[in-house]
Fold:
Amino acid sequence: MGQFMARLRSSISMTPRFSDGWRYSPEETAAMVRAAYEHRVFVKGGGTFKSTPEIEDNIRKAAQWLGHGRSLGLVLNGGLGNGKTTLAKALGDTLRILRNIYPEMVAAQDYVRWYQREDERADSAMRSKFLMLDDIGTEAVSVKSYGTEYTPVIELLYKRYDTDKPTIVTTNLTREQFYKTYGPRVADRMKQMYSWLSFNGESFR
Structure:
């Protein structure tokens, strides 16, 4: 029974991200993501990329997730201004150049507003081939429509996972804060669905 359950979990949660494979080694992928990260730092402020062991480790792990990981989602969590969104965008740049995939970046607060207004952009986010959902935890967790309560962002993440659509999430919440904000059921499922990378260094701002 134990072997059966292990194979069952693997068949459900180990869906390949790219059906035709990924031609680059983990080292090559990490080097390209790092170059994209450095370029993003320069474009944003014209400054020099200040490397830290944590940033280098997270770049390596994020690159591993992108090209060779199996979980459909990646959560980048940590404090303000410590590189989460920059890394998410660097992953997007890498996808754009290597795979001609243009990830859609959406702020969590914007998505909830679109959801409430039945804006077509909410549907676009749901269908996006590769979505980056920025700053979750700042949005209204639940909203009411005609007396029924909905949790737009969580429903978005669940549906994208259920339809095998990769998603990168950034949040300022720690895992403990995420647990308190969204509840144990959601937090536990997110832990199963997504790989997590934490940013604990000081702000670069």
The CA atoms of residues 105 and 132 lie 5 Å apart.
